[in-house]
Amino acid sequence: QVQLQESGPGLVKPSETLSLTCTVSGGPMTNYYWTWIRQPPGKGLEWIGYIFYTGSPNYNPSLKSRVTISVDTSKNQFSLKLNSVTAADTAVYYCARNRVTMTTSNFDYWGQGMLVTVSS
Amino acid sequence: DIQVTQSPSSLSASVGDRVTITCRASQRVSTFLNWYQQKPGKPPKLLIYAASSLQTGVPSRFSGSGSGTDFTLTISSLQPEDFATYFCQQTFNTSPITFGQGTRLEIK
Fold this sequence. Notes:
Number of helices of chain B: 0
Structural class of chain B: mainly beta
Strand content of chain A: over 45%
Largest sheet of chain A: 7 strands, mixed
Shape of chain A: globular
Largest sheet of chain B: 7 strands, mixed
Number of helices of chain A: 0
Order of helices and strands of chain B: EEEEEEEEEEE
Radius of gyration of chain B: 13 Å
Oligomer: heterodimer
Structural class of chain A: mainly beta
């Protein structure tokens, strides 16, 4: 059974960088895309970006100037960095596996989520 | 961006009811449309992918249909564990991938 687990600081100061890591277990990272999604408290889902296991990222244009996603398959991990954060970046951050075929692209396994609060 | 609009935003129903949720995309997305269920404090769970394919382990009372711009998620006979929030997602255009705003399904 594939499992994903987010880790990192739960509190980040305004203007600093939010850094999270997702550890993947129970399955390979190869041949999959790995994605980050966030959900502000009580609100909907926002896709942040994904990265292929070979290291090719694709970011949401609304966040592209502030986001970096990287992957380290030797550690079975991928990471998110979001810089210059504000209170609007307060959200539950999820990592997920993005399964892509000729007929579908979907998020079939998710981490439990991690609340990150931006506050001084 | 491809906007994805769900309706209704909230819905009250009873156990045993047949329920339909609609998702409309602002541009054609072929069948690159997925449905997720989310319960409070939990991550979303994939229910339907490619518009109509049932994810492994999901009960057969869930079904999806549609292509192009109009899609539906149907629950044939509501069970107590189905009361949750449902999201649709388009992955046809990945710049960006977008979700519907969610439909909250509540007990009547």
